[in-house]
Amino acid sequence: MRIISIFHKLCVTLPLVLLFMLPCMALAETRPENPMLKASELVPDIESPRLLKTGEERGVARPLSISVSPNDHKANLAIEASFRMFTQSMKPRFSMWLERSGRYVEAMQEILKERDMPVELVFLPIVESGFNPKAYSRARAAGPWQFISGTAKRYGLAIDWWKDERKDPIKSTIAATRYLNDLYNMFGSWSLALAAYNAGEGRIAKALRKSKSEDFWELLGTKHIRKETKNYVPQYIAAAMIAKSPKEYGFDDLAYHKPFEYDEVVIYLPVDLDVIAECSGTDVDNIRELNPELRRWSTPPNVEEYSLRIPAGKADSFIENLNKVPDDKLFSYDTYVVKKSDTMKKIAARLKVPVSAIIELNSLTSIDNLRSGHEIKLPPQGKYFADIDDRMTAKKNARKKQVKHSKKVKNTDTKTVKKHAAKA
């Protein structure tokens, strides 16, 4: 049997504005004996964004609490600047991010609640990626939660030639929840945990040690963390409060995207995405949107089974239609007969496909020898395209070759100069 249906559907049932469980409190009448402020209760007035603190920041991790003294000039200026940026210069882009959040925020919130994490963290992908699963940074962080490769793998996300689970909104949220929980347990403060999410726990620990500080806001006046990290927590505070009550900040008539809703099936053979689309009555773009982790033209052939998302309500018809497709039409690839003196590099250059594609598609290693007359699989023409990670890897390799060549030329020139000098 090729597939088994799994009943997985997700749909939004609560309005977006109800995601914060704590009430928004106006702080125009903040009492002097309560000088500290709380992130989930930020003043709706962007000219004076301050937070009311109802308890100690360190201790119980729920609900999320970020405190800043109203006398902390640097901290308040940073928060005010973030509000101005999102509500003025970046308002069109921020509106787009808010609209896109409607697709994922309910599913992400449920994951946070299941793991007893503050639901306010659901808005962190606004500042990370604008809720874009395809987001990819110069540091090669990917997905809505912007994981770098090492951290992603440490928290259980698979990354290989066929898939990148950092881009999956469900799997990456589970990983981000685990990581954020570890960071909070490490630092005992959500402001420091968020700073560490941006900069890395090692950098924040080092900054605290060097500055002899225990508070994130004290780091703003030091050179121990980057400007990006100094702005990160204030931007999160502003973004979360705007997302909670967008109309209060001038974001009217937002057209939120439809919620992430799908059926899920398990398949036991690799299947091309165009075959999947045809069997589920949709197009390839929709299948890719539902399965953003997929990097290639098909589901991964290097796993025994794969959980695939298809449009909601299509599981039964998909199973029926797929079972009618012949096995040799499920997964496509081209073939090439190895010639004498062929190497993977020569074949890759001649056919304009990366060596990594040949290795992955044939379950080889980089040191395997190709035998003359042996038939190997190649990516199908018209279906294989390099993704952004392929292009970044190619650029990185090209730079390495250029640096290596430059060093070789420099060493040759140095030896030539020394040789001439000796003759003189």
Task: Based on the model shown, name its key terms.
424 residues, Lysozyme, 4 domains, Membrane-bound Lytic Murein Transglycosylase D, Chain A, 14 helices, two-stranded antiparallel ribbon, mainly alpha
Task: Produce a short descriptive summary.
The chain contains 14 helices and five strands. With 424 residues, the chain is mainly α.
Largest sheet: 3 strands, antiparallel
Cross-sheet strand order for the largest sheet = 1-2-3
Following the backbone from N to C, one meets helices and strands in this order, namely: EHHHHHHHHEHHEHEHHEH
Shape field: globular
Q: Give the CATH architecture of the largest domain.
A: Orthogonal Bundle
Q: Kindly report the CATH topology of the largest domain.
A: Lysozyme
User: Mean of residue pLDDT?
Assistant: 84
Count of strand segments: 5
Helix content range: 40-55%
Sheet-strand content, in percent, reads: 5-15%
Structural class: mainly alpha
CATH class of the largest domain: Mainly Alpha
Termini, distance in Å?
Answer: 82 Å
Total of helices: 14
> Over the alpha carbons, how many angstroms does the gyration radius reach?
26 Å
> In total, how many domains does the architecture comprise?
4
Low-confidence stretches: 4-61
Give an account of the 3D structure:
- This protein has 424 residues and is mainly alpha-helical.
- It has four domains: 16-249, Lysozyme (Orthogonal Bundle), CATH 1.10.530.10; 261-329, no CATH class; 334-378, LysM domain (Membrane-bound Lytic Murein Transglycosylase D, Chain A); 389-424.
- It is built from 14 helices and five strands.
- It has helices at residues 73-89, 91-114, 124-129, 149-154, 169-187, 190-199, 201-211, 227-244, 273-280, 284-290, 315-322, 344-351, 355-361, 388-423, and strands at 3-6, 262-267, 306-311, 334-337, 375-378.
- The strands form two sheets. A three-stranded antiparallel β-sheet has the order 1-2-3. The chain has a two-stranded antiparallel sheet with strand order 4-5.
- α1 packs across α8, α2 (91-114) crosses α5 (169-187) and α6 (190-199) crosses α8.
- The radius of gyration is 26 Å and the shape is globular.
